[in-house]
Fold each of these.
Amino acid sequence: MAHMSELKDRLRADLTAAIKGRDEVRSSTLRMVLTAVTNAEVAGKQARQLSDDDVIGVLSAEGKKRREAAEAFQSAGRVESAQQERAEADVIAGYLPTQLGPEEIAALVSEAVASTGAAGEGMRGMGKVMGALQPKVRGRADGGAVAAEVRRQLGAG
C-alpha cells in the first residue's frame, strides 16, 4: 500500500504514550478517533490508505460530534457528560490545523465571492462560493460558520 498518513502515525504514537501515562480521556478519545479513521479506510468498495487531509476530515467530523453532544448534554442539564465531551473535543482539536477566526473566514468568503463572480447572484451563488471555499477551510473552520458568512455576504450583495 501507499505511504501511511503521518498524522495517523502521530495519533497512534500519542495513543501509546497516553496509555502508558494512564491518561484516560486522551487514550479513550484517541482510540475512538483511530477507529473512525479505520472505518473511513474500509468504507466504500475498496479499502484504502487515508491521506493526512482525509484524516483531518475525519478528525473535524469527530470534533464536531463532540461539540454538538456537549451542547445537547448541557441543555439537558447533564453537566458531567457535557464536560466529558468537551474534554474529548479539546483532545481532537489539538490535532487539527489552527482554526480560522471570524475575520479570516470573512476575508476568505469575500475573496471567494469575488473570484467566482457570485456577488450579483444573491443566494443562487451560494453553491459556487461554498465549492470554492471548501478546499481552503477544510478542517480549519466549522462549515456552519462559513455558510453563515457566505449567506451574510451574498444577502448583503
Amino acid sequence: MEHEDIIEMVTKRLKDIKGVGKIMVFNDEDREKISALETKADSMTLMGLGIGDNKGVKEVMKCDIAMSFQTTMEYVWPPCPNIILTYEGKVVGEDMDDTEKLKELDQSGDALVIGNIALYDKSILMSKKSKSKPLVVVLPHKPCSEVEELSHVSRAILASPSPPTDEYVKERMGLDNEHGTGTFLLGFDIETDVD
C-alpha cells in the first residue's frame, strides 16, 4: 500500500471521530518550524509551575508521518495524565480525572491542588533547591488506538502542542483562533512488511 493511501485511510478514520475538524499532514518545513517552536516553548515557564518538556510533540516529530487535526469542544481528550510534573527526574505531580482523589490530596495539607493538577508535596516549591532546579512540566504522548488499529499503521501517538505551535498550526490550516477549538498532533509509523 502506498504512503498516500495509508495517509488517506488515517484521515478518513480521524474524520469519523466526534469533535475532529480539519486535518493537515506536515511537510519537512512544518516539522522544522514546530521543533523550533517547541524548543523555545520548553525554555519558558509553564502554568507558573516550571519549565516545559513537550515529550509528546518531540515523539510525534520522530514518526514517519506527522499531522495535525482541529478539535472542537466535542472532542474527548485522552485520559489523564496529560501533564506530569517532575522534579530531579522524579514524578511529583500530575493532572487527574479523579475528583475524589484531588479532593483527598487537597485536604491532606501536603499537596497543592490547582484545578485538576496535583503537586503531591508542596514543600518542593519552598525548598532552596527549587530556585536553581525548577519543576519540569512534561506533556507526554498518548496512544491513538483508533488509528493504530488500522492496517499498515504502527505506533500511532497523539500530542498536545504548546501555545506557539498551536497558533502556527492553526495559521497553516487556515483556522481562526476560536474559543473552544484547539489542535492535536498525530504521528504514526508505516509498517513496511504488511501486504
Amino acid sequence: MKINYFGKMSDTMRLWVIPVILGFSLILSGLGIIFILDMRALAAIISGFMFLSGLLGVSYVYANRGRFDGWGFYFTLAIFDFVLGVLLIVTPEIKMTTISILLSLWILFQGLGKIIYSLDIQKLGIKNWDSDLATGVLFVAYGAISIFLLSLSPAFVLLTTALVLSFAGFFQISLSLRRQAEYGSDARDVKVEPVKVCVNTEN
C-alpha cells in the first residue's frame, strides 16, 4: 500500500512549499488587518496578498494540471484573486466595508476551491484530505455569513476575518508540513526490487 500511496502522492507534493508560503501570507494579512489602521495601506497589503495568492495558485495548478480534475476551476480562482487585488488598488475611496466585502468574497470562493481540491487529492490517495474538505466548508459558511453581517458591523466582520485568516494560515502550514513529512517517510520506505535478467545460454 505504501508504494502505491507514494507513487500517487509524489508529483502532487513536489510543490508543497507553495501552500506553506500561502499560509505565512495568510498570517501576515491577518496581523496587518489587526494592527494597520490606515485603510489605504491596508488595502495595498491585502491587494499584494491576493496577487501573491493568484500567482502561486497559477503555478500550482499549472504544475498539477494533468492530475487535478478541477484544474480549470482552480485557474479561475487564481484569476479571481488578481481581479480582487486590482479592485482594491483602483478603488478611489477605500472604506472598511469595501475591504470586508472583498475579503468575505475571497474566503467564500477559496472555500469552494478547497472543497474541490479535497475531492481531487482524495482520488490521488493523499491522506488527511478531509481536513481540506472541512476547511473548505467552514470557509464557505463564514464567507456567506460575514457578507450578511456587514450591514450590522463592518468593523466586527473585518476583525473576525483577520482572526480567521491567521488561524487558517497556521493550519495550512501545519497540514502542508505534516503531509511533506509523510511523503518523505513513504519515500524512504519504498523498496526497489532488483531486476532479474534471464540469460539464454542455449545456442
